[in-house]
Amino acid sequence: MKRNYKNINRIKKILAQEEGAVYKDWGGKLPIALVYANTYRVAMSSLALHTLYRLFNDEADVVCERAFYGFDRIPRRGEAFLSLESQRPLAEFPALAFTISYELDYFNAVQMLKQAGIPVLAAERDESWPLLIAGGPAVYTNPEPLADIFDAFAIGEGEVIVPPLIDALWDAVNLPRSEARRRLAQVPGMYVPAQKNGPVSRVWIKDLANFPTTTQIYTPNTEFGDRTLIEIARGCGRGCRFCMAGYTYRPMREIHLDSVLAIARHALQHRQRIGLVAAAVSDHSWIDQIAIELRKMGARLSASSMRVDPISEPLVRGLAESGNQTLTIAPEAGSLRMRQVINKPQSDEQILAAVELAAKYNFPQLKMYFMVGQPTETDEDVEAIADLSLRARKLFPRKMAISATPYVPKAHTAFQWAAMTPAEVVERRVKYLQKRLQPEGVALRSDSPAWAAVEGVLARGDHRLGKVMAQMKKISLKEWFRALDAEDLTQDEFLQERDLSAPLPWDVVNTGVAKSYFSRDLKRALNNKWTSACPPANCLRCQACDKEWAFRPNYLDELGPNRMANDEWRIANDKGRMTDDKS
Length: 583
Known about the structure:
This protein folds into 2 domains: about 5-200; about 210-510, tm_1862 like domain (pyruvate-formate lyase- activating enzyme). Helices cover about 35% and strands about 15% of the residues. The chain has 22 helices and 17 strands. The strands form 5 sheets. A 6-stranded mixed beta sheet has the order 2-1-3-4-5-6. A 4-stranded parallel beta sheet has the order 13-14-15-16. Strands 8-11-12 form a 3-stranded parallel beta sheet. The termini are far apart.
């Protein structure tokens, strides 16, 4: 494989602009390549990558270097993928640790292996090749499409998995491949397909305060290069039925106000802007106080996501004062019926109140996120997206954009059994929205329905897809369908409705929430019924929490003034807003 010195010089220029990268001599250490199967710009926006880089390099006997699917461009055919820190080819590392957040990046991962000269299929690799490990939200929930390619999968949160994984890798890299996989299977949270050691249960951390998650490497060559990202909470108890992350990272865990401010004080030495990261930033029980105190410290704020039930006006005001150009909200559906189906209990009035705040604080742009093609969706539900958007348009006179993303059913959600809406139906509905909204000055963006269908296949596929991806000569829809046909497979068999009683490919892993809970929640969805959000404690309904966590003493002392106490939560249920019967 050619060692392209132009590429090496390009990497060195990128490194020269970084702050916080770790450089170690390889002598006496275990080299691990941390691989993100997308471009440098996308990868360096991922807090997961920053966290794993720190966790690996915190170990004195490990040298962890980053590798990406291209830097400012995708490498040409025959050009080796190189690590950043020492510009070594991937094949020189004893272990490659991929973190994959998005199913379509599977194709990039396979192409990286091919271009690195590494056999794609695990059965074709012996101990002379690197051990391949994958983790991240996409593979965490359903590793099976990659089961014939990777040696092992991390099921759960890296803070728990990395330390024992390093110990296992020290043994495994010196063993015959079959014994190496057997050793990896001994690590809690590691799924090793060749060992058939499933179902493997996820591992998770109960106290985020012990593992602050924040930007480790600063670079101008990424979307968030002007800020320090700080994770203020992990998980979500809202129970939106479409949301994979909301289920697989249960229960919601918060960083206390004091800890957030302490991290921010240190971060302000590097960047003036603080980016708050959580599944729903505005759900943090101290969010008003966080926003107010950070502004007092002189920080400029940004936030990854906003809920409108309720919305935090101090946070919105802080975002406006910090010069943010866009306020983003996510109604997800236009009609109340559709929001009942997906369990997102936001009223039109709450959504429009958030729009009014965007206008009040003079944001230059408003973005609203919707999904098209969700289970039971009708043309009338899509008309409701247009109607709600146009009502918002009357309240917000400046630049406005709507995202209408094709919905992809995911494993380990209430909709894991649902059929995916055909691409042609989604395309027709998106075109209808364009026709309604563009004349009113509302821009509409949508992903490709055809590629969304491919994502749907990979999200709920099985091990047969590994050989499909392995034989693809390039990444294209035409080549995808050719490779499917060569393996006597079709998209339809993966996109159709699943039988509730049939085994599922992803049953090999247990991400916390019981399958029976999902099946009950699907029935509630089909009956347009709400399911109540997680209470702060004293609940084992979905089985994501263990008894030690659920019934921890003094749990109310952990919560800030913005979070409903348990008694208030029960009162809300009693009023019928979100009933939770057994039907």
